[in-house]
């Protein structure tokens, strides 16, 4: 499963979000709106993305 990559983009602002949600977005490596990073597809990453699914957009590569 780790051979696939996911392209993660921050689409919404973190203003008003809880500190744990902000920390999750920061740990994904996202710094600002429309910032995109590529991460290996792992179960841990999927869990993090599920927690912030209302803020990010995910594409499989």
**Coarse shape:** globular
- Radius of gyration from the CA trace? 11 Å
| CATH class descriptor name | Alpha Beta
The helix content, as a percent range, equals: 25-40%
Helical/strand content category: alpha+beta
Which spans of ≥5 residues are poorly predicted at pLDDT below 50? Answer: none
**pLDDT averaged over residues:** 96
User: What is the count of β-strands?
Assistant: 3
Q: What is the name of the CATH superfamily?
A: Ribosomal protein L30/L7
Q: What do these coordinates show?
A:
Helix content is 30%, strand content 26%. The chain contains 2 helices and 3 strands. It is of the alpha+beta class. It has a single domain, classed as Ribosomal Protein L30, Chain: A (2-Layer Sandwich), CATH 3.30.1390. It has a 3-stranded antiparallel β-sheet, with no helix packed on it. It has helices spanning 19-27, 43-51; strands spanning 5-10, 36-40, 56-60.
């Amino acid at each position: 499963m780790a051979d696939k990559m996911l392209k993660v983009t921050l689409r919404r602002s973190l203003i008003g979000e809880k500190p744990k949600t902000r920390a999750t977005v920061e740990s994904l490596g996202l710094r600002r709106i429309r910032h995109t990073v590529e991460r290996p597809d792992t179960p841990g990453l999927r869990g993090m993305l599920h927690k912030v699914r209302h803020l990010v957009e995910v594409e499989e590569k």
